[in-house]
Amino acid sequence: KRDHEDLQKIEEAIQELDPKSGKIKTFADLSSAISPATASGLHSSHFTNMTEIQEQAIPLGLKGKDILGAAKTGSGKTLAFLVPVLEKLYRAQWTEFDGLGALILSPTRELAVQIFEVLRKIGRHHAFSAGLVIGGKSLKEEAERLIRMNILVCTPGRMLQHLDQTAGFDANNLQILVLDEADRIMDLGFQSAVDALVEHLPKSRQTLMFSATQSKKVSDLARLSLKDPDYVSVHQDA
Ligand code: ADP
Ligand code: MG
């Protein structure tokens, strides 16, 4: 069991984080507010300075806020949600017996694989189980592994299929939902799959939504799945 006092200290450090102070520039500046496992995963993956979207979104994510984040491709959105995901489960003292704690939705298989690779790198010192659910195998084969996973990276259609059809699998205890590339999720016609999927999730969860562009479709989706969100947008320099 993790030391209660350690978790208390992390909670206190999170409360003191002020994203507007301009003082949180490096991952080391977050070190008292995140787990040693994530800090060393970031360090050994050679991530030192935060990008702008990370500076803005990670402190809010750690504070448990719902976020709608927009920043162009290549700006570092993956870590902006993966750090809060790992920390949410760490602070909840999530174990292999607690089932699915985090769900990350991606519009395409290729992007899901990329997210999963970053998760494996920065999450390697954690004991969470993580899997990819992107089809390509039979539902049954996928289902056998799925049931034991704490973190899943998936495409919306395939995930919905499992929630509807896989016996013994549910998301009733989910702590955090991420929609990455929400604009492309909408463009690719996944709106109804996402709507149906969200019906399977507890309302008490935290939700993080990221996109490269701000569009009406994304704000429509945000209205349905986010609670009193913080808007974080990073504009390109002129
Ligand atoms: P986006 O999802 O916004 O398109 P990614 O999360 O895929 O961006 O990151 C783009 C690239 O920037 C990746 O190669 C990633 O490893 C790198 N990167 C992200 N954050 C940092 C950082 N803090 N320091 C250095 N490189 C970073
Ligand atoms: Mg991305």
Automatic annotation (TrEMBL):
<comment type="function">
    <text>RNA helicase.</text>
</comment>
<comment type="similarity">
    <text>Belongs to the DEAD box helicase family.</text>
</comment>
<protein>
    <recommendedName>
        <fullName>ATP-dependent RNA helicase</fullName>
    </recommendedName>
</protein>
<feature type="domain" description="Helicase ATP-binding">
    <location>
        <begin position="58"/>
        <end position="232"/>
    </location>
</feature>
